Every structure is written in structure tokens, then in C-alpha cells.
Amino acid sequence: MTVRPESDSAAATRCWCCGGGFPESELVRLGEHPEMGVCLRCARWLRRRAVRQRDELRPSVTGMLRGGVHVVRKAVVRRGWHERGALGVFLRWLDRYLP
Ligand SMILES: [Zn+2]
């Protein structure tokens, strides 16, 4: 009986942010480090985080509006409204289009 080495493909489909397993089509690979990939959900989270950080470094009116959206989003999540039936479905749909 031969021992098969652990498959690299299983590790290659792990999100480097949340650790979840995803098909290759749902991962975004990093430019200089293609061995690292993040899932689409984490990529969106990272983008929002980067934009928030940029807004803090360079304050602007649009940055303040994005900050307001972020405060409302945090309040919705804290209250659990995003998990409430039809309201939750609507809020999660709406969140896809917000900055
Ligand atoms: Zn992820």
C-alpha cells in the first residue's frame, strides 16, 4: 500500500481570509502571490475595508457618505435585522449595491 501525499488542490481552494473551502471559480487570486486567494465575500469585505482606510487618510464628502452607510450597516447587523425573513433578504440584496 502506498501513501498518497496530501493533495495540493484542497489547499489551493481555501480562502486565505475566512478559511472556507471554495471552488476555484469563486476565489480571487493575488497578483504577486497567485498561491493565495480569497473568496468573493472576503474580497468584497477587504475592498470595503481598504476604501474605509483610504477615506480616513483622505477625508472627503463622498468618504463621509460612505462612512454613514458603514454606520447604518453596523447598526443593522448589531440588531440582527439582516437575518429577519423578507426584511433580511431585502437588506442583504441592498447591501450588494452599497459602497
Ligand atoms: Zn473568505
SSE blueprint:
Elements: H1 8-12, E1 27-29, E2 37-39, H2 40-57, H3 61-79, H4 85-95
Zinc ion is lined by residues 15, 17-18, 20, 38-39, 41-42.
Beta-strand content bin: 5-15%
Overall pLDDT level: 87
Task: Record the strand order, biggest sheet.
Answer: 1-2
Report the major sheet.
2 strands, antiparallel
Cα-to-Cα separation, first versus last residue? 55 Å
Going by helix content, strand content and strand pairing, the class is: mainly alpha
How many strand elements? Answer: 2
Fraction of residues in helix? 40-55%
State the order of secondary-structure elements, H for helix, E for strand: HEEHHH
Shape: flat
Low-pLDDT segments, ≥5 res: 1-7
Tally of domains: 2
What small molecules does the structure contain? zinc ion
What is the number of helical segments per DSSP (H or I, 4+ residues)? 4
Rg, please?
Answer: 18 Å
Describe this structure in words.
With 99 residues, this protein is mostly helical. It has two domains: 9-58, no CATH class; 60-99. It is 54% helix and 6% strand. It has four helices and two strands; from the N terminus they run αββααα. A two-stranded antiparallel sheet has the order 1-2. β1 and β2 (37-39) form a beta hairpin. α2 packs across α3. The N and C termini lie far apart (55 Å). Residues 1-7 have low confidence and may be disordered. Bound molecules: zinc ion. The site of zinc ion has 8 residues, from β2 and α2.
